[in-house]
Amino acid sequence: MVVLRAGLCPGLTEEMIQLLRANSIQTVVDFVSSDLEDIAQKCSLSYKALVAVRRVLLAQFSAFPANGADLYEELKSSTAILPTGSTSLDQLLDSGLYTGEVTELMGAPGSGKTQVCLRIAASVSLGLKQHVLFLDSTGGFTASRLYQMLQAHAEEEEEQLEALQRIQVVRVFDIYEMLSALQELRERLSQQVVSSMGPLKIVVIDSVSAVIYPLLGGKQSEGLAIMMQLARELKTLAREFSLAVVVTNQVTRDSSTGPPKPALGRSWSFVPSTRVLLESKEVTLGKATTQRIASLAKSPRQPVGIQAELDIGSADVTPTERL
């Protein structure tokens, strides 16, 4: 909430602010929702002056209505769909990753979250010639594995190296380093600073749970506040700058036989628009192999519950409906 301060709008003086604070009116919301006649009497202020200040504050901070057609046109002009590098995962996500949204990949250790993130980075950098910011909080980013993916889809070494240069990796091992990196990015984008990174289309974070979990053990209210600050940063970057944001998360179980559910609780569940559960299963067909299954757990566009089998090493198969 915006706190009242001198200079916020014409007529809002320091003397007026002190009188308002003495009557428990500290924010713009407090002021515009109060009875101005009552305030004028209690604070010995001019009713006309208070009305004038409220009119300006409402003009500055109120949301203006927009019709559906305008919103749809804005959505069409600002939304892009980025391929993940996996045909079946793209089909599961209704064509790919949508800019303006946060997409979460959740799964147990070894389920393939980091491999999918690497493939997404390779696909956007090599296929779309767009830049990628990869925030690594687990130490799981492997340049050699990424290079193998690029080699599999580009014959020229120069093309492979150019794709590598379009992927910026930042190591962040606690929540404060992650917030600092995201805030620095937001400032650069706000100022339209063209850095050596070039035009950015996607931010990949592997993982959010690794930096949030340590905060939720002690003073939980404090940890939740910082977690929601991270949530605001991610959603702001996605919406205001038309970026696709991909994050990874761990899963928990209520019992040893219970179904997996995303970590970080209910408060975090409202952050991602789309959630994909990644699971690995051992399959024996002549020889033991690991089968990776992606299940849609949340989506604004597709029915929840559909699945796709992923082959992280090469090609994949088409989605299948959960029975």
Short description:
This protein is an alpha/beta fold.
Structure description:
The protein is elongated. The strands form three sheets. It has an eight-stranded mixed β-sheet with strand order 5-4-6-7-3-10-11-12, sandwiched between helices. The protein has a two-stranded antiparallel sheet with strand order 1-2. Mean pLDDT is 86; it is low at 314-323. The protein has 323 residues and is α/β, with parallel strands linked by helices. It has helices spanning 14-22, 28-32, 36-43, 47-61, 68-78, 87-92, 113-127, 143-153, 157-165, 175-190, 209-212, 220-240, 265-269; strands spanning 81-82, 97-98, 102-107, 131-136, 167-171, 200-206, 244-249, 251-252, 261-262, 274-285, 287-298, 307-310. Helix 8 packs across helix 9 (157-165). The chain has 13 helices and twelve strands. Helices cover 42% and strands 20% of the residues.
List the helices and strands and how they pair.
Layout: H1 14-22, H2 28-32, H3 36-43, H4 47-61, H5 68-78, E1 81-82, H6 87-92, E2 97-98, E3 102-107, H7 113-127, E4 131-136, H8 143-153, H9 157-165, E5 167-171, H10 175-190, E6 200-206, H11 209-212, H12 220-240, E7 244-249, E8 251-252, E9 261-262, H13 265-269, E10 274-285, E11 287-298, E12 307-310
Parallel strand pairs: 3-7, 3-10, 4-5, 4-6, 6-7
Antiparallel strand pairs: 1-2, 8-9, 10-11, 11-12
**In percent, how helical is the residue content?**
40-55%
Q: What is the terminal separation in angstroms?
A: 47 Å
Number of separate strands:
12
Q: What gyration radius follows from the Cα positions, in whole Å?
A: 24 Å
Q: Which spans of ≥5 residues are poorly predicted at pLDDT below 50?
A: 314-323
Secondary-structure element pattern, one letter each: HHHHHEHEEHEHHEHEHHEEEHEEE
